[in-house]
UniProtKB/TrEMBL annotation:
Annotated TM spans: 41-62, 83-103, 161-178
Domain of life of the organism encoding this protein: Bacteria
Organism the protein comes from: Amycolatopsis viridis
Signal sequence range: none
The protein, known as: PTS system glucitol/sorbitol-specific IIC component
UniProt keywords, alphabetically: Membrane, Transmembrane, Transmembrane helix
InterPro entries: PTS_IID_sorb (IPR004699)
RNA-binding is among the record's keywords: no
Length: 211
């Protein structure tokens, strides 16, 4: 009777038991993985991908209209003061060059300020995805994961995106200032004050030649 019950169950489910059943399970889930990947790819192509392309094209167009030299001068201007060095400068860097090329704007800073700028810029590559997903498309899943929960509750994601973006600016400012202080402390503690002073002189000389 037990054998008949097992056969009846197999007939109902349409699957085998034992080693053959294990192989069938592996086969169905193996192709199922690629099926799910294909569906996800199609959803990206018809969903976020056109938005990324349009945003990226618009940003390149704005940069072209303004002029690359003017954009570069704006970045150099923002590097002068600590309050703009860790707010406007990393924002412009991430928006214009995207991640990871944004860190190359550190070449406009003396050596002692580069660690703080990197810390500030790298901390902004997630908040920027709320309104400018093209800037860090590879890690867009972080914001989409958070926004998906809000969408399932029937709420708009715009208020959350705005708060995430503004808090991101505050955080990168704090991280930049703190890292700059830590860098200055480590320079003094390790006795490299004269070395970085020489770096500063070389930086000023190179900037004077560029003018």
């Amino acid at each position: 009777m037990e054998e008949l019950a097992v056969m009846a169950q197999q007939a109902d489910t349409g699957s085998s038991s034992g080693p053959l059943g294990v192989l069938e399970w592996l086969g169905s889930h193996f192709i199922g993985l690629f099926t799910a990947s294909g569906k996800q790819f199609v959803s990206l192509v018809t969903g976020i991908l056109p938005t990324l392309v349009v945003l990226l094209t618009a940003m390149y167009a704005i940069t072209t209209f303004i002029g690359e030299q003017r954009v570069t001068r704006a970045v150099q201007w923002s590097a002068r003061w600590w309050i703009t060095r860790y707010t406007i400068m990393p924002i412009l860097a991430v928006l214009m060059l995207t991640n990871p090329m944004a860190y190359s704007f550190g070449r406009f800073l003396p050596e002692r300020h580069k660690p703080a700028f990197y810390d500030s810029a790298v901390s902004f590559v997630h908040p920027v995805t709320t309104f400018f997903p093209y800037a860090n498309a590879g890690e867009l899943f972080v914001w989409l994961g958070v926004a998906n929960g809000v969408s399932q509750l029937g709420q708009s994601t715009v208020p959350l995106a705005l708060r995430y973006f503004l808090v991101g600016i505050v955080v990168i400012f704090i991280r930049g200032v703190v890292t700059e202080r830590i860098t200055a402390f480590m320079i003094r503690r390790t006795g490299r004050t004269e070395v970085f002073a020489d770096f500063d002189r070389q930086f000023e000389a190179a900037r004077a030649e560029a003018k």
